Amino acid sequence: MPDAEAKKTDKTEDKSKTDDSKKEEPMTPLQEVKHNVSLIDRAVLTLEPRFIHRVLRTLTSLRKKVDDSIIRTAIEEIYPKDHPAKKPLVSWLPEPTMDVDTAARLSITISLQEPTPESEVYLRLLILYNLLSSPSTYEKALELAQTTVEKIQNLNRRSMDPIAAKVWYAVERAYELGANLADARPLFLAAQRTAALRHDNETQASLINCLLRNYVYYNLYDQADKLFSKTTFPTSAGNPQLARYHYYLGRIKAVQLNYSEAHSNLQQALRRAPPPKTAPGFYQAVHKFFILVELLMGDIPERSLFRHPVLEKALSAYFEIVKAVRSGSLSQFQTTLSKHSAQFEADRTYTLIVRLRQNVIKTGIRRLSLSYSRISLRDICVKLHLDSEEDAEYIVGKAIRDGVIEGRIVHEKGWMECGSQKSGYGPEVSEMFGRRVTFCLDLHNQSIKAMRYPLNAHRKELAAAEGARERERELAKEIQEGDLDEDDIGGDF
Fold first, then answer.
1. Alpha helical stretches, state H, 132-178
2. What pLDDT does 492 receive?
3. CB atoms within 10 A of CB 365
4. In sequence order, what are the beta bridge partners of 375?
5. Would you say the C-alpha torsion 334, 340, 346, 349 has a positive or negative sign?
6. Is the pLDDT of residue 423 over 70?
7. Considering its fold, how many domains does the chain have in total?
8. Is the dihedral of CA 424, 427, 431, 437 positive or negative?
9. Rounded to whole angstroms, how far apart are CA atoms 151 and 125?
10. At what angle do helices 117-131 and 68-78 cross, to 10 degrees?
11. Mind giving me the DSSP string for 62-99?
């Protein structure tokens, strides 16, 4: 019996080892492409869109691993030799070498089932992303994008909607890299109207984001705001689309001086964004605007944010801006702005950073008001590096009116008298202390009353009085009946 049990355990261990070895073997990019095509065909035949969504979730990682030879081999193995869709697909790929061609011919397998049009569009999407990876093939990618859009519109299949949403993003990228993004705007507007009429939420969300990116790219913030007010973003869209939508809204609201809404939109974009290692570029772009909006609102971002491994290098210039705003040094702010102006213009944050000049000046004036009881406007110009005393007087007056500092400007003598700092004593402090003492005494009195007069004590007194009345009635009844005499009751009675 022990030997049999030992053999059984050995067999189970061998089976588990073989199962683990099978699970650990990852699929090659070619096998993954073929597997995805089979899943798409299965989704179309069984009317189960979850298989297409499973394929699209792997698109970001797969497009980085495939190249021309892998896509060509996949097309050769998926399609029969004389299939009408095979030649147009292969025509978008560069001419292969002899080794790749012979290897592809040897690995051709005629499929028993004809691939669906959704599979063809998926392969076109892989080819499009592959063409967008090199600047020399941008024009060819734009031609492929236009023909793919025409094919999708001609087919008009609802099972193709999830893949079409990804295709529209690739089309927008092809127009942008080809420096023809303005030409794509009528195409996107027409497609967005069609998607709204068909209730195609995924395509509609993708196209709204493409239009917002188009308007923001050309600084057409008024048109972007009109698009936001006239359209309703689908609530059933995925988190990546929602993250992009909130990111563009945050940028629009920040330019329109609506910093509170911009801050909340950028927060939503960060919450719904993919992990930092999955999409580091988007994570960095959102944080650049998020930091500037916080500074414009008067807050200072946390220092730990600039130590994040994904953000540390990308936010080094913005960290210097934060230090200049916090210290109130206008010279340091101007030096940092001129030093990293090229990066700020590339990030499209230069206009927002220029607005921080007033915040830096306000911070410097607040520090001066805490250090001096009286300071001349000329000294303020020298310390804050302002142009003239008139500018200093205007800025100080605005800071006093906004409540940033307490004081007044003596125009005849040319100085600013700062409000005296409140000490620990005075009429205001004694009044506040008196209110607190009164509150504590009232609380003490109420506690004593609650202890002295317990809750519902009057009910016990009523019950006792009712019992006394009942005893008096019984006693009077007995006297009337003659059971008791007056001498038996007592003299007082």
1. 138-155, 161-177
2. 45
3. 26
4. 416
5. negative
6. no
7. 2
8. positive
9. 12
10. 170
11. HTTT--HHHHHHHHHHHS-TT-TTHHHHHHTSPPPPHH
- Write out the two tokens for 17: 């080892």
| C-alpha span between 285 and 428 (Å, rounded) | 48
User: What kind and span of H or E run contains 375?
Assistant: strand 374-376
Q: Which domain holds residue 185?
A: 27-93+114-230
The pLDDT tens digits for 127-155 are 888 888 888 888 888 888 888 888 888 88
Instruction: Look at residues 204, 230, 256 and tell me which one is the last residue of a structural domain.
Output: 230
In the chain, the amino acid numbered 4 is A
Structure tokens at 442: 């009232």
Q: Which two tokens stand for residue 420?
A: 């005296």
* Chosen domain end from 230, 254, 289: 230
Q: What is the pLDDT of residues 314-349, one digit of tens each?
A: 899 999 998 888 887 778 888 888 888 899 999 899
| Burial category of 177 from C-beta neighbours within 10 Å (exposed 0-12, middle 13-18, buried 19 and up) | middle
In angstroms, the Cα distances linking 32 to 37, 96, 188 are 9, 21, 31
Cβ-based neighbours of 197, under 8 Å, separated by 6 or more:
none
Cα gap 3→1, rounded to integer Å: 5
